[in-house]
Amino acid sequence: MALHIIDHPLVQHKLSLMREKGTSTMKFRELLKEIAMLMGYEITRDFPLTYEEIETPLQKMNAPKISGKKVVIVPILRAGLGMVDGLTSLIPSARIGHIGMYRDEETCLPVFYYYKMPVNKDRLVIVTDPMLATGGSACDAISRLKEDGYKSIRLMCLVASPQGVKAVEEKHPDVDIYLASLDEGLNEKNYILPGLGDAGDRIFGTR
To answer: pTM for the complete prediction?
Structure first.
């Protein structure tokens, strides 16, 4: 497993705008889409290339094209949906799965109320969720994907706490994590500090 923190100036600038409490719902969504696309460049950096002969207006050449990596983007509902458009603008051929879950208050076990994935288990799975707080939802989602037969999984989040990163590292050491920021920690309500509030509420205007 590797932790990748994407410190590109554009990503960091846009994240700062998202953190501001006065940022509107429309602007928040727009910025999240843009950051997801920029992060997509890094999460796909190691995709293998093959070479095919093409013809330019001037001559023939062996041109590089992506080889072998079929992708499925899997948002954890609901906030993860906000990152999908940015990634699909970069990878328009990607399939999209969905994972919806909540935690049973009595058993503390995850309950999956929605799970829909492509049949092909050989695809690279990019799980999206803007916030990696305690890591519980991400760990449960990844476990469900592994149970279903998916082996190549990456996790893409906007901001994370050290506790959340540690939880994923311990339970899923084979999963790479991509972040725009590793924040300070969690408050007593398990919100990330300094964070950006409830990402779902800010994306969908339900705050």
So the answer is: 0.92
Q: Is 66 exposed, middle or buried (0-12, 13-18, 19+ CB in 10 A)?
A: middle
Query: Is 95 in a helix, a strand, or coil?
Result: strand
74-98 confidence digits (pLDDT tens): 999 989 999 999 999 999 999 999 9
DSSP 53: E
CA distance between the termini of the chain:
35
Which residues, 6+ apart, have CB-to-CB distance to 70 below 8 Å? 95, 120, 122, 123, 124
The catalytic site residues sit at: 103, 107, 198, 201
Q: What is the DSSP string of 114-180?
A: EEE--S-TTSEEEEE-SEESSSHHHHHHHHHHHHTT---EEEE-SEE-HHHHHHHHHH-TT-EEEES
pLDDT in tens, 92-121: 999 999 999 877 767 767 788 999 999 889
Q: Is the peptide bond before 103 cis (omega within 30 degrees of 0)?
A: no
Contact 135, 164 (CB under 8 A): yes
- Between CA 18 and CA 131 the distance in angstroms is 13
Helix (H, G, I), strand (E, B) or coil at 100: strand
Helix (H) / strand (E) element for 92: namely none
Query: Hey, what amino acid is at 195?
Result: G
